[in-house]
Amino acid sequence: MGSAQGGPYERPHRPARPEGTPAADRRSAIRQAALRLFAVRGYGATTMTDIGAAVGIRGPSLYKHVASKHELLAEIMMGTMERLIADNTAAVAGADGVGERLRRSVEAHIRYHARHRLEAFVGNREIASLVQPEQDRLLQRRSVYERRFRELIERGAAEGAFHVQSARIASYSILDMGIGVASWFHEDGEYSVDQLAYQYGDIALRIVGARHPDLPGEGGATGHA
Amino acid sequence: MGSAQGGPYERPHRPARPEGTPAADRRSAIRQAALRLFAVRGYGATTMTDIGAAVGIRGPSLYKHVASKHELLAEIMMGTMERLIADNTAAVAGADGVGERLRRSVEAHIRYHARHRLEAFVGNREIASLVQPEQDRLLQRRSVYERRFRELIERGAAEGAFHVQSARIASYSILDMGIGVASWFHEDGEYSVDQLAYQYGDIALRIVGARHPDLPGEGGATGHA
DNA sequence: CAGCTAGGCTAATGCTCATTAGCCATCACA
DNA sequence: TGTGATGGCTAATGAGCATTAGCCTAGCTG
Is B185 on the interface with A (CB under 8 A)? Predict the structure, then answer.
């Protein structure tokens, strides 16, 4: 016996569950592995065999857990967008004033892109790899997210708290600089996620021309808490 | 007669050169077509047949003009990076003072990302699709480009003209917001390339905490040096 | 007008993949 | 102890693709 398959291969039957691994764990391990591979090699260059190998099984066995490679991508990307929106909702809740709301929104944005850099990275790069019903849905959700920033800045400008030439451009520049974080941030780098979020919050407030106590401008870093 | 190939196909022999098309033009038409397709579908999802069809020939005929699909991508990406660096060099030449140098650098950065949005878009998204000698060379060139911004900001901070918490983060945020332009800019949109470049120049100066006469903001001109 | 070259074309070639089929061992549970 | 479900595995299947081979015509050159 040994290898019961009868194939010419030497590999013994691995115990089906190395640990106490309920089905859900295995599935999420697959998603994690796929995420890492999509981030490093790109969706198109990642094979089901690669993903399987990363969790210790063969490519075809993945189909016992996921419907398709596309489903994996769609799930990762949609999940990312939804969490971004949910984080924004939570961040903004109970904040008074446009300045505070913008700061919290930006901090949540940065925090997400730093903490979940792979998700964010893939979520931004692989849009063209999505197939049609999903691609449109994703873009719609993204535009909801973007609109929140734009409208917040428009409101701030209308109230006289912000001073921008274009709310649209201000919002894009703030969002895009956050997206960039996902491509260079490293956990063990110079700054912690919290420090990063705080600094980007300051930068965003500068972009919209808000004056606020923490950043007097001249001697900028001085007063900050 | 008609189709001299003898195949079962109905397609007549297209004149080899619809216009006065010297070899170089055909080659650059191919590069253009490849660029557009890479941008829209992604490198991996674009086939040689697609590229051929876009210039009116069959996939295999492309090999009379280019060595491989990879070569096309590498050429596009390297060319983009080199022009970005060259534009920066030209922009900065003869500029006095860190503020002016930063403004001109940013304007050139934005201008490139708006005018050559497809190149810039592909250049940023398809890094993982490059094979090894080229990928490293590209990343090296990119880090040269990034370093220019960072060092400029460091210098400005040292001179007391800029006020940033981190030159690295300031430079990344400026570069990243420019990269973002390539993904949403549209020639016939709300702003011209020049207007866009100017606005982003202002934003960059705000990010680095430079006071400057053009953008008083709310009493912003107050402490102006 | 002979012949070379450039640049098309079709038809292989030889992969690489995602996905499906069909088989089997383990295990929870009766 | 028997049995059904779960989750592995190998071996198709079928498609798509980059690239190569080999052929052919038109047009220039002499």
Answer: no
N residues, chain A = 225
In total, the C-beta contacts within 8 angstroms joining chain A to chain B are: 118
Quickly list DSSP for B93-138. Answer: TT--SHHHHHHHHHHHHHHHHHHTHHHHHHHHHGGGGS-HHHHHHH
pLDDT per residue over B158-176, tens digit each? 999 999 999 999 999 999 9
Tokens of A57: 């099984």
- Residues B209, A206: C-beta atoms closer than 8 Å: yes
A68-88 burial: b if 16+ Cβ within 10 Å, else e: ebeebbbbbbbebbeebeebb
Which nucleotides in chain D have some atom under 7 angstroms from a protein Cβ?
A: 6-12, 16-22, 24-27
Phi-psi region of A162 (alpha: psi -120 to 50; beta: other; left: phi over 0): beta
A205-214, B13-22, B47-56, B110-119, range with the lowest pLDDT: B13-22
- Cβ <8 Å between A170 and B200: no
pLDDT tens readout for residues A11-57: 433 443 344 456 778 999 999 999 999 999 999 999 999 999 999 99
What pTM does this model have?
Answer: 0.86
CA distance B105 to chain A (A): 16
Inter-residue contact B211 to B221 (CB < 8 Å): yes
Mean pLDDT computed over every residue of chain B: 87
Q: Note whether A168 contacts B180, CB cutoff 8 Å.
A: no
Q: Please tell me the distance in Å from A56's CA to the nearest CA on chain B.
A: 25
Q: Which of B41, B69, B135, B37 is nearest to A40 (CA)?
A: B135
Q: What is the mean pLDDT of residues A148-174?
A: 97
C-beta neighbour count of A92 within 10 angstroms: 16
Report the length, in residues, of chain B.
225
Contact A215, A202 (CB under 8 A): yes
Q: How confident is the model at residue A7 (pLDDT cuts 50, 70, 90)?
A: very low
Helix (H) or strand (E) holding B63: none
Q: Which helix (H) or strand (E) covers residue A156, if one does?
A: helix A132-159
- Which residues, 6 or more positions from B77, have their beta carbon under 8 angstroms from its beta carbon? B122, B123, B126, B127, B130, B134, B138
Q: Are A216 and A222 in contact (CB under 8 A)?
A: yes
Is A90 part of the contact surface with chain B (CB cutoff 8 Å)?
no
